[in-house]
Known about the structure:
The protein is an alpha/beta fold. It has two domains: 7-98, Rhodanese-like domain (Oxidized Rhodanese, domain 1, 3-Layer(aba) Sandwich), CATH 3.40.250.10; 100-157. It has eight helices and five strands.
Amino acid sequence: MLFNTNKGQMTIEEFLTDPTAPLVIDVRGSLDSDPAIPGSHKIYILDIEERIEDFERKFAPKLSGRTLLLYCSKGEGSSFLLKKFSGSFRVQSLKGGMVSYLTTVSRLLHEHPYQDPTKRGDNMVKILAALTNCRTSPITFRKIIHRLLQHSPDPKFRALAR
């Protein structure tokens, strides 16, 4: 288990270790926010804040043994929401939010040793599109992240792929 408290922040490294384990909720300011983390559910932040009990009841069946991971642009809004939850299940905020996710994914894409260097740019665009589309399947998302982590020159990231 990665988490020892019911409320707190999850680092991007913890998230990338198993990106499909938590139930991911995009709480940015509008419902048309793109890019998004694959598999995330877009819910307007004020809808959660104003009806937190209804939100908890709605997602309670899906959270048995799972973490609810909230993210916003920079992490402040989702971090603020944490104190509103009852604590009856694990709820985390992605530290640094979407900015942290995009920064890390971009770094991994730039460091990756592509098989055909002449198609590097095209491949990076396709992979980034998949990693920022909430409709990307969990299996595809997990495979892409795992491969990027495996081939990172940074031993800290390679260790996450084990």
